[in-house]
């Protein structure tokens, strides 16, 4: 059992324990199947952000060097029709998130700024933090970044809510 | 010889004594003549004449001769080995020295007894100084001959006494009277010498601090009385200057003790105050009972100053950070501070001890290296200089902090403390029990809010009331339940363990099995038997090892053993004791298997934040984060991490620690 597996197992135990509550914004945080610990799915409902009405799905892919290298976290944007969950919103307009691929631009998820003490839970929390603190200066979604720069709150909220079912 | 006797009956029978007598007479005459010539011709100014007359005075001669004799004694003694003065000659020499001291000071006492009656004062000081010199020579001889450090100089050295007496002699040339203060000073000097000899007589020199403290306190009390009374000018300048540092330090100590007391009274508890720490860690002051009063005084003063300058820093460095959970806050704060310098990887640079402690040790070594026979004045001046510098630093720091407070209203009073000490470990009888945040949660939240606001430069905290603050805070962190996390800090570990117990995971089973296997190998009684007589074992090994050497059979004494029984061994024994206790505890609760596992894990500081498996072993310098284990340190080094994983500070080195 490699170090990464040990650590992921510990985290898995922690998240699956009913006594140990995750943050309210995180609905679930589990591996896709029990045989593979390197592929996780998280469902978030970022209450107290402007995205509070939506439920979003994140895919987390881990390497064998996990605590020393960051996980690769993406918003799931193109789920196939069969697996599609009606509750989940698959489009997220955010200036640091690629609208088509769901890629996230967050410095602490890059290898230079990653710290091994971060767990999956805190990585997700950091992404939720990013949702409310958009950085229009390094955008992946240029159109939305312009709205943020103009600070047009009505437009921003309307676009977000337009995609939420 | 008989012819000489008839010439004068004052001179004694021995040629040498007569020679010395005439020699000293010549010196005396010379000094007087020198004076008069200088004054008459006005060639030199007063200072120069005083200087020359001092060198011509009998006091300086005595002083120099004493110095030469003592120097020779020490040098001869250093060429011999295994020297031990027989007890009987020790006693005889001591008694002789005491006798000489009493003779030398007899006239002083007489003078003090009937002060008002006028009598000749010519030889009082000379005989006093002579007896002081002889007594010091005796003391040096005895202690060197029995392989100890000479225990001379207390407060004022012989040299200073000679200067002082010469000054008195000069000033009393005209009116021929000695003031009562000078008599008391003389008596104090006699008392100091008597003290040493009496203690040496009864072999109690190790408790010198007690008696010399009594004498020293009396001296300083007398000094301050004179200072208040205004009669300080009656004392010689040298004495005034000589006692001034000690006087200042004593006042400083009293002042700070008063401050501690008043704060204690106001807060109605001494638990939080640093003085409490001081009482617990009394050993760290580095004062032993065999020190003399003035050295101890300076050490203590320096210690107190240190305490007040670095509020959180005592030599034990009690504040190792133990970040557990809410590092997302730190992380978010630190995200903006990008690291620019990546010079050397601190994860591979092992530092044996706390760098600050090492500095102190270096200083201590330097002090020890300075030979005892160099001038004590010099050393003391150095120490005093140190104290003064620290005092100035303290005052400047306080003033700066006052200014800062005035200028910057936004900084809370608690801000400094909060930044420095965030966590504290409470130690119980059972060991490290729980770890708690030093501040209230609310406090912490406000601080973070402060930081965020400062960063954004958009919000002024004074304009927002508390409720808004809380709202803002929760908004900033997007309701990630951080307060909840904070509160659960204390219980995090136990929760974890309960999980482990609830679910049957292979790793846990393995560990339990291995524990049991170990217990099969060693029964509890076996361990008890081996471990309880640890000290006796040490005593035996010490005894055995010393018989092998060809040292004349030395008796096994407690003091010898305590020298051999070093701190490291004590630590080792302590660790073993702790383990033993834990084993016992577990055995008592063996029926409840779950409780047992919990018990073991409760005592730990927490697990490594990287692998979440091993216990924490590595302290990083200079940030003092105790968060990772050895294997994770190695992998971090291989991955070329340059910053601390917890606080993102630069890592200069690490130390391994082992928590029992």
How would you portray this structure in words?
Chain A contains four helices and four strands; from the N terminus they run αββββααα. Chain A has helices spanning 3-16, 120-132, 142-150, 153-163; strands at 26-33, 36-44, 56-61, 72-75. A four-stranded antiparallel β-sheet of chain A has the order 1-2-3-4. The termini of chain A are far apart. The relative contact order of chain A is 0.16. The mean pLDDT of chain A is 84. Chain B is mainly alpha-helical and 660 residues long. Chain B has 27 helices and five strands. In chain B, strand 3 (618-621) and strand 4 form a beta hairpin. The longest helix of chain B has 32 residues, at 376-407. The radius of gyration of chain B is 34 Å and the shape is globular. Classes of the chains: A alpha+beta (165), B mainly alpha (660). The interface between A and B is large, with 35 and 36 residues. Chain B: It comes from Pichia kluyveri. Chain B: This is Ubiquitin-protein ligase. Chain B: GO terms for molecular function: ligase activity; ubiquitin protein ligase activity.
Q: In which range does the helix fraction of chain A lie?
A: 25-40%
Portion in helices of chain B: 55-70%
- SSE string of chain A, helices as H and strands as E: HEEEEHHH
What structural category characterises the helix and strand content of chain B?
A: mainly alpha
The total count of helices of chain B amounts to: 27
Level-1 CATH class name of chain A? Alpha Beta
Please provide the count of β strands of chain B.
5
* Envelope shape of chain A: globular
Q: Outline the biggest β-sheet of chain B.
A: 3 strands, antiparallel
Uncertain segments of chain B are 1-11, 312-316, 338-343, 411-462, 477-512, 590-603
Domain UBC core (chain A): 3-165
Family (chain A): Belongs to the ubiquitin-conjugating enzyme family.
Active site (chain A): 105 (glycyl thioester intermediate)
Organism (chain A): Pichia kluyveri
